[in-house]
C-alpha cells in the first residue's frame, strides 16, 4: 500500500504556530545551558497541582507548562484515536523513560502516547507529553530508529521550545493561540480537518516562521542524538531515519500543505550525519525482541489494519534471526485470532509461552484467545500461575479482565481498586472497574469509576454530576461518600484552573 507521508513532525508546527524568531545565538545559548540530569518521578498524577496563577505576558513557569499539558492531554484523549493498548503504551513509555533518564535539563515528568494513525508523525507539547503516531512503527527498521524519533521529541521538551517561543512572543497575549494548539491536537485525529484549521490560523506570516522552525528542529536533532548515544543506542540511526524521510519526500507526488511539506533541508541531514559520524557506535547486537513484538502488534492490529502489509512483514521476519522468528510467530497468532481461528492461534501462542512463560505479550494474546473461546477461567488460572503478574500492570489488567469474563467479580474488583490507585491516569483501569462494579450491583462505585474516565477526557462537569449521583445514592459507606465529596471538590478546583484555557 502507499504510505501517506508527511515530512514534517507536528512538533515543528507547534513551534511555527507561535511565530516569532529565535536567532542562532539564542539557540546556541540553549545548547550551552543544557543542565545536568535531575531525578524525576516517572509518573505523577497531575490532578492535585496547585493553582499557580497565570498572568498574561509573564514568563511561563514549569508548573504552568505541566498544567497546560494536563489540560491538553485530556483534550487529546477526547479528540484523537489514542491507542490505549497496555502492551504498546507500556513499551513506548519504557523506551521513553530510558531515553529521558539520559537527557539533561529534565524538569517535568514525561508521558508517551500512541495515536492510531498511519501518517508518519510525532510531536511534543507542554509538560513532557510526547505523542507518536503508530505509523512511526511501520517505518522504523529497529528500536534505535524509533528511539531517535523519541529522543528528538524529548529534546523539544527539555529545550522548552514551546515555552521559549511564548516568551519571545512578548506582544501577543500568551493564550490567544490556545485554539490553534487545540487544532494541532485535532490534526492528529483527522489530518484533513486539523490541517485546514491550522492553515487558516497561520495564513499570513508563514514565511517568517520557517527560520524559527529550522533552528528548533536542528537543536532537537543535536540534543537528541546525544541523548540517544548516552542511552546506548546507535547514533547512526538518527541520520538513517532522516534519510528515509528525505527519500520518501522526494518520491511523493502530491505536495501536502506547505507546512507539512516543510522540507528536510540537506543542511540538517548533513549536520546530523556529521555528528553521528563522530560518535562511537555500540557493538552489534540482536534487534530488540520487544521492538519486533510491538511493531508486529501495531502492524496487525492498528495503523489502518492492512493485513497485506502485516503478512509481508511477517514473511520478512520469518527468514530472520531468532527474535525475528518469534515475532513472526506472534504475528501469525494475532492474524489467526482475528480470523477467529482460535485453535491455530492458541497452538502458536502456547509454543511461544512455553519458551517464555512470563512474557506479557504472549500471556496477553492467550488471554484474548481464551476469552474468545469462552474459556476465561483457563486464562485466570494461567495468569495467576505466572509470577510476573505481581509486578506487571499489563498482566494485572489481563487478570482483571479475565476474572470479569469468568464471573469472578469480587476478585476483579479487588485487583482494579489497587490498579486504579496505582495508575489513576490509565482509562483501562477505570472502564474495567466500572464493569466490575456494575456486575456486582455497586451502583455508586460504577458511577464513580465512569466519572474518572470522563475526567481523563476533560469532561469535568459530567464527572462531577456522576460523582454527585454516587454520593447521593446512599449505596456506599460513609467513607465512600466522603471520598466522592472530596473528589467533587478536587475536580471543581481543576475545572477552575482550566477555565483560562476554555474561555477563549
Ligand atoms: Zn521536531
UniProtKB/TrEMBL annotation:
<comment type="similarity">
    <text>Belongs to the peptidase M48 family. BepA subfamily.</text>
</comment>
<dbReference type="InterPro" id="IPR030873">
    <property type="entry name" value="Protease_BepA"/>
</dbReference>
<keyword id="KW-0479">Metal-binding</keyword>
<feature type="active site">
    <location>
        <position position="153"/>
    </location>
</feature>
<dbReference type="Pfam" id="PF14559">
    <property type="entry name" value="TPR_19"/>
</dbReference>
<keyword id="KW-0574">Periplasm</keyword>
<feature type="domain" description="Peptidase M48">
    <location>
        <begin position="90"/>
        <end position="275"/>
    </location>
</feature>
<dbReference type="InterPro" id="IPR051156">
    <property type="entry name" value="Mito/Outer_Membr_Metalloprot"/>
</dbReference>
<keyword id="KW-0862">Zinc</keyword>
<comment type="function">
    <text>Functions as both a chaperone and a metalloprotease. Maintains the integrity of the outer membrane by promoting either the assembly or the elimination of outer membrane proteins, depending on their folding state.</text>
</comment>
<dbReference type="Pfam" id="PF01435">
    <property type="entry name" value="Peptidase_M48"/>
</dbReference>
<feature type="active site" description="Proton donor">
    <location>
        <position position="221"/>
    </location>
</feature>
<keyword id="KW-0378">Hydrolase</keyword>
<feature type="binding site">
    <location>
        <position position="156"/>
    </location>
    <ligand>
        <name>Zn(2+)</name>
    </ligand>
</feature>
<feature type="binding site">
    <location>
        <position position="152"/>
    </location>
    <ligand>
        <name>Zn(2+)</name>
    </ligand>
</feature>
<keyword id="KW-0645">Protease</keyword>
<keyword id="KW-0482">Metalloprotease</keyword>
<keyword id="KW-0732">Signal</keyword>
<feature type="signal peptide">
    <location>
        <begin position="1"/>
        <end position="24"/>
    </location>
</feature>
<dbReference type="InterPro" id="IPR001915">
    <property type="entry name" value="Peptidase_M48"/>
</dbReference>
<feature type="binding site">
    <location>
        <position position="217"/>
    </location>
    <ligand>
        <name>Zn(2+)</name>
    </ligand>
</feature>
<protein>
    <recommendedName>
        <fullName>Beta-barrel assembly-enhancing protease</fullName>
        <ecNumber>3.4.-.-</ecNumber>
    </recommendedName>
</protein>
